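User: Could you go from structure to sequence for me? I need the amino acid at each position, not a summary. Structure tokens:
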């Protein structure tokens, strides 16, 4: 197999080293499913993506997303990072400010704002629905929320490409200091077939209005430093519950500081359209040598 351009990215980072890792194989034509899975297992990143020519004529490119254990149809930071790689490698150009990504969740628009180091990419969420709400929405929810005070909005199970439990916490300081019961969150995730728990709190920070901590125990991760899909669900939930509130048009998010990262995401809410994204930094740009499965 000929060497292929490979990018290692830092997605949603306020500065390099603060966001979520992503590996991108920029030309996976000729790769089998087994080769993709083997390489994703070898990188041992939360997700590795593989770029392909689109099958849908509307799409700018196609992406396949793999964890070390399986292929998944959609995730936020792999989508934003893959779009960054497409632009960096000149594989597609935005039309009317949009790229169109073909993935397992369909053909999704990605908004391109700015260029160079100031460029932000925002993904439109693939549609959301509130499955259940309330502190008693699941018998294992109370244990997963043990030790944290709740905020204004009731806890909710929200589905949109990926399924998360969302919980507003009373204040930023309490959320940042929280030591959650990860076993309880894992039990809740397994019992409800969800990713896990994503907790958020309103903040008075100068450059962000929401603090988020995400615990995707359902896929074996203790805490995620930057969560695109989960933040999309939070934005949709806030827009639905508080259509005239101070956050109803959008806001900035701080995530990951509790585990040594510093991610910054933005949410734009345009009516029913939820856009979530941020900046991506290229950390490694090299050539990949990989053999058969």
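Assistant: Here is the amino acid at each position, in order:
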């Amino acid at each position: 197999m000929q060497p292929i351009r490979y990018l290692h990215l830092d997605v949603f980072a306020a500065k390099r080293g603060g966001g979520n890792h992503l590996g991108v194989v920029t030309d996976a034509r000729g790769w089998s499913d087994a080769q993709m899975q083997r390489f994703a297992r070898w990188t041992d990143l939360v997700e590795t993506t593989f770029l392909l020519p689109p099958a849908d004529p509307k799409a700018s490119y196609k992406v396949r997303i793999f964890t070390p254990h399986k292929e998944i149809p959609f995730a936020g930071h792999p989508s934003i990072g893959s779009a960054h790689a497409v632009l960096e490698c000149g594989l597609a150009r935005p039309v009317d400010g949009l790229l169109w990504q073909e993935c397992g969740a369909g053909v999704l628009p990605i908004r391109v704002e700015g260029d160079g180091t100031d460029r932000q990419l925002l993904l439109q969420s693939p549609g959301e629905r509130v499955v259940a709400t309330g502190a008693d929405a699941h018998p294992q929810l109370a244990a997963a929320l043990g030790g944290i005070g709740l905020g204004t909005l009731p806890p909710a199970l929200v589905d949109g490409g990926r399924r998360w439990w969302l919980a507003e916490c009373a204040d930023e300081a309490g959320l940042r200091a929280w030591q959650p019961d990860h076993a309880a969150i894992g039990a809740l995730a397994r019992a409800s077939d969800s990713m896990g728990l994503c907790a958020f709190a309103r903040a008075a920070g100068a450059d962000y209005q929401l603090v988020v901590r995400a615990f995707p125990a359902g896929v074996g991760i203790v805490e995620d430093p930057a969560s695109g899909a989960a933040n999309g669900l939070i934005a949709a939930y806030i827009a639905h519950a508080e259509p005239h509130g101070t956050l109803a048009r959008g806001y900035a998010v701080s995530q990951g500081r509790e585990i040594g990262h510093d991610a910054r995401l933005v949410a734009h809410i345009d009516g029913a359209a939820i856009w979530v994204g941020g900046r991506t930094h290229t950390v490694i740009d090299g050539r990949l040598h990989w053999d058969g499965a």
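One structural detail worth keeping in mind: The longest strand covers residues 280-288.
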